[in-house]
Specification:
143 residues; Barnase, Chain D; five-stranded parallel β-sheet; Barstar-like_sf
Length: 143
């Protein structure tokens, strides 16, 4: 379902030569640089910090906090899917080339709660697929 971001990495994803998807960040690329590259490419970026996240509730709390999800986010899987297919909460003035969600410390979350991580990854993949053909696609990087 998820593969490593192919060479030449994040620049190709942001330029549109690598299709949007849910990718693992190659070890040669730093998560800190990903959002800066996204901004330079006129993509809106969000940094989901998963350090210390070991279950579904903590994951959804991190999403609410770090993604600044709207008040109507119900902290359940369906509500997360709804938020990721209605990005009006993420939009600012102007239309970006795309949206990049960087989920850092994904491996720790996956080891601690593999079933929850698989569910979250499926929701992220569905959201990426939903936006894939739009003028402003969504891409997810698991770091």
């Amino acid at each position: 379902m998820t593969g490593t971001l192919p060479a030449p990495g994040l620049p190709a994803l942001l330029a549109g030569t690598t299709p949007p998807g849910v990718y693992r960040l190659p070890p040669t690329e730093a998560p800190a640089d990903a959002l800066a590259l996204a901004t330079e490419a006129d993509w809106r970026g969000a940094h989901l910090r998963l350090d210390g996240v070991h279950d579904k509730a903590a994951f959804l709390d991190a999403c609410a906090r770090d993604l600044d999800l709207p008040d109507w986010f119900g902290r359940n899987w369906d509500a997360l899917a709804d938020c990721l297919t209605d990005l009006s909460w993420w939009r600012e003035t102007g239309k970006p080339h795309g949206y990049l969600l960087l989920a850092e410390d994904w491996g720790t979350f996956h080891k601690s709660a593999p079933a929850d991580a698989r569910t979250a990854e499926a929701i992220l993949t569905d959201a990426v697929d939903y936006w894939a053909e739009s003028d402003s696609p969504l891409a997810v990087i698991l770091a």
